[in-house]
Predict the 3D structure of the following.
Amino acid sequence: MIHEPSQEERRERERMVKDQIGRRGVRDERVLQAMRKVPRELFVERNDRACAFHDGPLSIGHGQTISQPYIVAYMTEMLAIGSADRVLEIGTGSGYQTAVLAELAAEVYTIEIVEELSVRAQGLLRAQGYSNIHFRAGDGSLGWSEAAPFDAIMVTAAPDRTPERLIDQLAEGGRMIVPVGSVEQNLELLARRGGAIERRELIGVRFVPMTGRAQKGEA
Ligand code: SAH
């Protein structure tokens, strides 16, 4: 299925980037271009297509959400993804953030714990022609050790604390962004430099909780 966006959908995407993302301070031109290009309207539920560009998260079923456009752009910008980078994403969800990462990086490895969501995202992304995305259905709190280390790790479900197994899978110079906390979270940006881990707290956010071993405090 090849999707032909309508003129109106193209215009709405332009408007989303200008009014919701650019105006709030995201400046990286590669990120803005990826946000203009990826057809967000395809990743929401069919009945929500008319409000695909709403300035907030939307339900994608299974109690999960597609993140707010601004948050997708902001987190992507903070990871400073280069075109040769290998990226790990935890929480494929709708696959929308995955597509944005796949526009910027060399390879994307993405893990989703709800199998139906993983399968749906895989179908959508393959139909869009992405060939640099590797999918796994399972618990992402353990990372993807066979493909490690990663230049960037994007976590889009919230653990109570950052899973150590993910930090271990960061390459030298690698960055990780993760919402840490239970009901409300702070985005944490971690970087591995010279063997040490630097941490910075960014903005407050609200993500669905990370389930699996992270929730049981085992990761
Ligand atoms: N980036 C996604 C966000 C989806 S919400 C989007 O914009 O569409 C977070 C997702 O993380 C949910 O789909 C949830 O099922 C998944 N998730 C939660 N815990 C997980 C875990 N331990 N491993 C992998 N995925 C997990």
Remarks:
- The pocket of S-adenosyl-L-homocysteine is lined by residues 64-67, 90-91, 93-94, 96-97, 111-114, 117, 139-141, 156-157, 208, 210-212, 214 (CB under 6 Å).
- The chain has a mean pLDDT of 94.
- Helices lie at 7-22, 29-37, 69-79, 96-104, 115-127, 164-167.
- The longest helix spans residues 7-22.
